[in-house]
Amino acid sequence: MHTLENIEYKTAAILFGGIGGESAGLLRSQVEYGGKVYRFRLLCSIDSDPVACRNHDLITGEKTAVVMDLFRRWQYVAWHGHKPPEDWREVTPWDIWLAFKQQVPFFLFLSPPCKGLSGLLPQKKSESDKYQALNYLTVSGLEMALQACLEYGGSLPAIIQLENVPRITSRGKPLLRQIKKLLVKYGYAVSIRADHNLGEIGGLGQNRVRFLIMARHEAQIPNVIYYPELKPLRSIGDVIGPLPAPGDTEAGGPLHRLPRLQWKTWMRLALIPAGGDWRDLNKVDWQNLRVTHEPRRGAYEVADWQEPSRAVTSTAGPGRSNGVTAVSDPRLQIGGEGKTNLLRIQSVDEPAVCVTGAAGTHQGASCIADPTLSYRPGRHPAQYRIVRVDEVAPCVTGSRLGSGAIAVADPRINTKLHPDSYGVQDWDATAKTVRSANRIMQAAGSISDPRIADRPGRYTDKFRVQADGEPAATVTGTTDVQSGAQLVADPRIQSAPRADTMGVQDWSTTAKTVTGSMDVHAGAAAVADPRIPADNEQGVWLIIAQDGTWHRPLTTYELAMLQSFPTHLPDGRPFQLEGCSDAKAREYIGNAVPRDAAEEMGNVILLAGAQAEAGITFEMSWDPVWVAPMEDEVPVRVH
Fold first, then answer.
1. Annotated region Disordered: where (predicted)?
2. pLDDT at position 3
């Protein structure tokens, strides 16, 4: 710890630091108290993954990552399934002390691997020796760090924090008992809770409930540690809305490319409603859904003369969709003072415009609105005319319907039917009034009679088709197709479909002859359209879902922003990780502590250290307490 320009630095060390979410947050923490500014100085971030350590330094801008495998030999064998190489050795407390730059850190943070404790891992697999060895790092890492500080530094970290998944409270109960026993033994007041929402602590765009242990060494920090002020959660749109468009790797870096998913996966995403998941696919009305192709922006686009043109592409044509190939050219003035008579119609009651030497319809006013040919009685007045029944008919001509009045509005057919015309009465209801004209066209003269039921044994041969290779059914006196088996499947007429019936044509070949009965039952009237990809074809497609939005996967860059990583690295490049695949980058980002949450938790830790330094052991405050002083039990004599 040293003071520089009224800034007092508290040292911090991190075990299992990953790519540096916690480190980046602590380096942003800052508290003003008692006329001083308190900040963190990072001693080291230890991790066994060299790629994670490389990216830790890339994100934080400091060379503080240390590659160190904290496995003990039995853990290494259980996890890897084989003995370590000859040059491998177990880490000792001295190695930890050297990584701590031979200083006892004021704050020690641990985020041990949580794979074996996560609910994403099946219970039976989590109980295997392999994952139990990984889980034990939560105890062995802490134990070795405390041993290094006590043996070589003569003191202990003032505050210790451990982060993990909430499921540790059920899958890791024995581990938690050992950790609490170890901390209490060394004089720590301990808070153990699995309901910390780092999203609310850091004001993130995600819910991130985690397990946290906060331990305060009572001899060094006799005062309380306050809980960070909870902030409202932001929407996911608030976070990723201002970011570059997905796929823009120039502005968003290589992690902002969209994953290449299978076509069927894109379709599933489009069919799941916002806020839903795979279970909603069971509700899809798939029989009434169709996939249609919508051209990209640019088809038939007319460019503005005053604006830059879009990119010229190799498929630039007026009907194409990749580039603009038409322009609104203002140099040909059709209007104003130039060529005012183009396609002009002159009025008959006004003077004519000047007759020019090129008086064509496209060059001069050579057209006129002629009133001499107008509608008047006697000039084709009866085209499509309907004659009223009470007026004189026009002259009967030899013309057809389109030329003469050969239609009449005949009032003798009254199409207003009586109520109950063609009515069918319900068997269980009271009959309607019986009238003298009780015919089916005038009254409800029909009934739904349930007494004739369709049951096995009654008229079994109705519309029956007999097989050619079996004996015929009995010939009855009412042998017609509705009463007996009067049909036979006669094999002598081979009615094989014609060639091309139900035919599907190849997209890349010449089409077959189009016939007058061109449907799928009569010819090759179907085509294998390659514009809709195959189910397993991978790519990036824009499918507009039923709610009018694009249901797409989040890019790795967007996931990093939801974890509150910076949009740009200290060297000015968009946020990115080096030396790993996109899948591994997502794993690193998902395992990281959100930077903004780490910053807020670091602020309350710095405040606790500043108050302890100022000798403040008690104060009135509305802020909730995270770790309160341990209350000593006072013996009471009962009389």
1. 308-331
2. 47
Q: Where residue 608 sits, what CATH number does that domain have?
A: 3.40.50.150
Question: What local confidence, expressed as pLDDT, does residue 186 receive?
Answer: 95
3 state DSSP class of 303? strand
Q: How far apart are the first and last CA of the chain?
A: 53
Q: What is the pLDDT of residues 185-242, one digit of tens each?
A: 999 999 999 999 999 999 999 999 999 999 999 999 999 999 999 999 999 889 998 9
Q: How far apart are CA 434 and CA 350, in angstroms?
A: 78
Q: Residue 163 and residue 110: Cα distance in Å, rounded?
A: 6
Give yes or no for a contact between 80 and 132, defined as CB atoms under 8 angstroms apart: no
Report the candidate in 43, 31, 142, 52 with the shortest Cα–Cα distance to residue 93.
142
- Residue pLDDT, tens place only, 264-306: 888 888 888 888 887 888 888 888 877 776 666 666 677 888 8
Q: Is residue 143 in some structural domain?
A: yes
pLDDT, tens digit (0-9, with 9 covering 90-100), for 136-173: 999 999 999 999 999 999 999 999 999 999 999 988 89
- 3-state helix/strand/coil string of 568-603: ECCCCCECCCCCCCHHHHHHHHHHCCCHHHHHHHHH
User: Which contacts of 362-368 are long-range, i.e. CB under 8 A and separated by 24 or more positions?
Assistant: 363/339, 365/341, 367/343
In a domain, 84, yes or no: yes
| C-beta pairs of 237-243 under 8 Å, 24+ apart in sequence | 238/205, 239/204, 239/205, 239/558, 239/561, 239/562, 240/205, 240/554, 240/558, 240/561, 240/562, 243/557, 243/558, 243/561, 243/567
Tally the domains of the chain. 2
**Per the confidence metrics, is the pTM higher than 0.85?**
no
Report how far residue 388's alpha carbon sits from residue 382's, in angstroms, rounded to the nearest whole number: 12
pLDDT at 379 over 80: no
Residue 549 in domain: no
**587-619 burial: b if 16+ Cβ within 10 Å, else e:** ebbebbbbbbbbbbbbbbbbbbbbbbbeeeeee
- Beta carbons within 8 Å of 305's beta carbon, 6+ residues apart: 327, 328, 329, 330
| DSSP secondary structure letter of residue 282 | G
Task: For residue 404, give every residue at least 6 positions away whose Cβ sits within 8 Å of its Cβ, in sequence order, or none.
Answer: 382, 383, 385, 394, 395, 396, 397
- Note whether residue 349 is domain-resident: no
Query: Are 23 and 58 spatial neighbours (Cβ–Cβ below 8 Å)?
Result: no
By residue range, what is the domain housing residue 32? 3-230+594-627
Residues with Cβ within 8 Å of 67's Cβ and at least 6 positions away in sequence, in order, are 47, 48, 49, 50, 53
Of 452, 475, 504, which residue sits at a domain end? 452
Does residue 597 contact residue 198 with C-beta atoms inside 8 Å? Answer: yes
